[in-house]
Amino acid sequence: MTTPTRDLAFASAAALRPGLVSGEISPVDVMESVLSQIEQYNGDHEGGVNALTEVFPEAAMASALEAQEIFAGLRRSGDTPPPLLGIPIAAKEKHFLAGERHSEGYTPWAERRAAADHPLITRLRNAGAIVHARTTTPEFSASTFTHSTLWGVTRNPWNPSATPGGSSGGSAAALAAGMTILATASDIGGSTRVPAGFCGVVGYKAPYGRVPGVGALSADTYRGDGGLARTVDDMALLHGLIAGRHPADHRSWGPTGAPDFLGHSADLSQLRIAMDLRAGDFPVSAAVASDFAALAETLRAAGAEVVDVSLPVSSDTIVETAQMHFGQIISQVIAESIGDDPQAATQYVREVLIDSAAAASRSTLIDSLRADAAVQQAIAATMQGFDVLITPTQGAELLAADQDIRAGFDVDGVHEAVLMKAHMTLPFNIANGCPVMALPMGISPSGIPTSAQIIGHPYDERMVFTVSRAIQRLLPAVGSPDLTSFAPLPA
Question: Virtual CA dihedral for 438, 412, 279, 144, nearest 10 degrees?
Fold first, then answer.
């Protein structure tokens, strides 16, 4: 039986908002609740969830007290509070904070400091959110697990032996463990959706350019910044606040503010939905397949026309296409960062560089662009005549917390050597005009959540949000993890 204080830590921002506005809930109580979860369960390199690189308890409590006073003043004046006033949000470490460390998980950069806030952080603070903690990533956000020499191993709150995914693994683990109400994330190959899937929360990859980035890498058409939340409604609110045109990123586009799809649900009986269990031929565990089949039946029962499809491109082609792209861009940036001392980087980063450089050496930039276009056309052909496409977020039931990038993974006793094939996210970074929502489907026998991704036609965010909201309302909630394996609750 949980206490009311602990319940606050697992609430959605939308559920907290009315009480905060009316004064029935204090921002101080909310902040105390998430800080208590951190104190009990985050731990350190040797134990605990280990989702956070830094926590700012004094500053966070001062900001919560200030928010409480602002709410009181606004109640007297009758004015509307900022949309996230008093809401704790944990920032992925790459979303830098002025004056704070910005290491990218790379040990030689452990004391590097940021000169200014990331544009995403500025927008969240302007909306009243309180950045109370920062979250772990793999080094240079270079994998779909989360461990590094600098920060140690981040564990999945649902099962300590498993990874929460990556690279936004710390953000998803913190959210699942009640250490925050919202979190920031980013996605270049699944780095928002994979941890959302493994941790039983909601993650959204927006179309390319919808959320502003920073620097030369904002030109990488696979990438995108975003967030993680407990509900689609919270995700819509968060996305509306961070998205939109920004002078720091001339490729950014669209409006900022509450989107017109906030709070809308699709009439599923009017929709044609394509469902692809294997996204072509990716390996899928029986547990994921079972939950995916149950989702299809739920959609049919709600009146949707559900059609089984198969993406006409192989997982080998998807991986090779992505590696060619990474070899042309991100691996070169990482290689420049580590310079003449490659041994300072973790082993998996060195191996990522080797693999992507090899793929790039087999191709030219135009070869990479042609490969991207071929995958995009295959997805477009598969989606033609449908409102959305749905696939699992990942076929693997779990990956080890200390996953070796060379170890591959097992699906129901069958070994797959290529770790990138554990997830079905990469096709929709290659086709990065597609908006994609990751939603929990159920819980596997290993205790890890399963997840589906709802894929829309290029730039059709409204359809993805409305369908996702309808699905979340139909499916049983996965709830929150039992954290007693990390630390006992106080008596």
Answer: 50
pLDDT (0 to 100) of residue 340: 75
CA 417/CA 415 separation, integer angstroms: 6
Question: Of the candidates 411, 457, 475, 487, which has an alpha carbon nearest to the alpha carbon of residue 200?
Answer: 475
Positive or negative, the CA dihedral 390, 292, 478, 34 is negative
Residue 100 φ/ψ, nearest 5 degrees = -100, 165
| Phi, psi (rounded to 5 degrees) for 366 | -70, -35
Judge whether 153 and 161 are in contact, CB under 8 Å. Answer: no
Tokens 């590696």, residue?
A: 323
Going by the DSSP 8-state scheme, the letter that residue 391 receives in this structure is E
Please tell me the distance from the alpha carbon of residue 363 to that of residue 395, in angstroms, as a whole number. Answer: 29
Domains and CATH numbers, the chain: 4-485 (3.90.1300.10)
Q: What is the DSSP string of 409-421?
A: EEETTEEES-GGG
Q: Give Dmax over CA atoms of the chain in angstroms.
A: 67
Kindly report the pTM of this predicted structure. Answer: 0.96
Return the half-sphere exposure (C-beta side, CA atoms, 13 A cut-off) of residue 56: 18
Q: Rounded to whole angstroms, how far apart are CA atoms 214 and 397?
A: 34
429-466 residues labelled b (16+ CB within 10 A) or e (exposed): bbbbbbbbbbbbbbbbeebbbbbbbbbbbebbbebbbb
Structure tokens at 91: 């920032």
DSSP string, 251-267: T--S--SS-TTTT----
- Cβ–Cβ under 8 Å, residues 466 and 261: yes
Q: Per-residue b/e over 318-352, b at no fewer than 16 CB within 10 Å?
A: bbbbbbbbbbbbbbeebbebbeeeeebbbebbbbb
What does the H/E/C string look like for 88-108? EEEEECCCCCECCECCCCCHH
pLDDT in tens, 340-358: 777 888 899 999 888 898 9
Between the alpha carbon of residue 304 and those of residues 232, 269, 290, the distances in Å are 20, 4, 19
Task: Identify the CA nearest to 69 among candidates 20, 33, 35.
Answer: 20
Q: The tokens of 144 are what? A: 């779909």
Instruction: Give the pLDDT confidence score for residue 45 in this predicted structure.
Output: 77
- As given in the structure block, the two tokens for residue 452 are 């589906």
**From CA 475, how far away is CA 186, in angstroms rounded?**
26
H/E run at residue 388: strand 388-392
Burial 219-228 (b: 16+ CB within 10 A, else e): ebbbbbbbbb
Least Cα distance to 451 among 401, 404, 375, 390 occurs for 390
Q: Which ranges of the chain have pLDDT less than 50? A: 1-4, 489-491
